Amino acid sequence: MFESIADKLKKSEKIVFVTGAGISQESGIPTFRGKDGLWRKYDAMKLATIDAFYEDPKLVWEWYEERRQNILSAKPNPGHLAIAELEKHRQVHVLTQNIDRLHQRAGSKSVYELHGSIITVKCTVCSFKGNITSSFSKLPPLCKCGNILRPDVVWFGEPLPQDVWQDAISQASSCDTMIVVGTSLVVSPANLLPVYAKQNGASIIEVNPEETPMTPSMDLSIRSSAAKALPELVPIVFPV
Ligand code: BV8
Ligand code: ZN
């Protein structure tokens, strides 16, 4: 799969991955827009927004709690593990749209969570932020200050965490190779990251069973799944 670009990969000092829901699909976590997509059962534009939350916090919490249980029982797959392995031999950064923390559980150290994390909550009023360690007895859960807590994720219409977004732009703009895995590149501004990389002369590779809007601009677009393609990548970039 990677033979045509193997020499460039071998010379890459800094590799940045941009990942989406597709990289966690083989861990049993449904993607958003796929046939098994989360958004088939639910209208995510209805649920992943601040208005939906204030309209019906219990419903939104039920959706996140269902996803959180599934995520906690999921395991990193060979795709996540290959990226973590590569980080032992090269400068690797992961810019993920996912909120499932599977990259970190696979062992990746440099992970930028562009859309937050389902494992953390924050207060809708005070500055409290913390990890969820057990299921809540009542939904929506309340903060010590008496106000309701919300999942610490970025909803549609909300800005990405500024520090994370700025860091993601600088990583994308200074890498030799960007590998875009498991994202439909529909959601902005995360879908701009490959543009930043290309503008700065990086080689960009896509790993996705389907085409995306950026397939024509890719140096290499691999029609395969993350768990199959990424383990092939490591021995090419870092021949032992
Ligand atoms: C912002 C967190 C500005 C929560 C998510 C019109 C109206 C309203 C808004 C907009 C609009 N037009 C544009 C916008 C902006 C909007 C946007 O982009 N909307 C889209 C829908 C058009 N963006 C925003 O609102 C962002 N904020 O712009 O703020 C601003 C600035 C200042 C002040 C105020 C505001 C915030 C976007 C973040 C939203 N939150 N998630 C949660 O998870 O519940 S988005 C959600 O979609 C996920 O995070 C996910 O990451 C993201 C993208 O989806 P993908 O990861 O790509 O997943 P998808 O299912 O789409 O694709 C999976 C891919 O994997 C497929 O290609 C498939 O082929 C492939 N695949 C499948 N299996 C495998 C595989 N690949 C490899 N291996 C496999 N096995
Ligand atoms: Zn509070």
Report what the structure shows.
It is a single chain. By secondary structure, this protein is an alpha/beta fold. It folds into two domains: 150 residues, 3-Layer(aba) Sandwich (Rossmann fold); 80 residues, 2-Layer Sandwich (SIR2/SIRT2 'Small Domain'). It is 35% helix and 18% strand. It has eleven helices and nine strands. Strands 3-2-1-7-8-9 form a six-stranded parallel sheet, with helices on both faces. Helix 7 runs parallel beside helix 11. It starts with 5 loop residues before the first helix and ends with a helix. The model has no long low-confidence stretch (mean pLDDT 93). The protein binds ligand BV8 and zinc ion (ZN).
Write a compact overview of the structure shown.
With 240 residues, the chain is α/β, with parallel strands linked by helices. It is 35% helix and 18% strand.
Report the biggest beta sheet as strand number plus sense, adding barrel if it closes: 6 strands, parallel
Query: Number of helix segments?
Result: 11
SS-based class: alpha/beta
How many domains? The number is 2
H-E string: HEHHHHHHEHEEEEHEHEEH
CATH class of the largest domain: Alpha Beta
Number of strands: 9
- How many angstroms separate the termini? 18 Å
User: What is the topology, as strand order, of the major beta sheet?
Assistant: 3-2-1-7-8-9
CATH homolog superfamily of the largest domain: TPP-binding domain
Can you name the CATH architecture of the largest domain?
Answer: 3-Layer(aba) Sandwich
Range of strand content: 15-25%
CATH topology of the largest domain: Rossmann fold
Sum up the overall morphology in one term: elongated
Please estimate the helix content: 25-40%
The average pLDDT score comes to: 93
Name the hetero compounds present: ligand BV8, zinc ion
Based on CA atoms alone, the radius of gyration comes out at: 18 Å
- Low-confidence spans: none
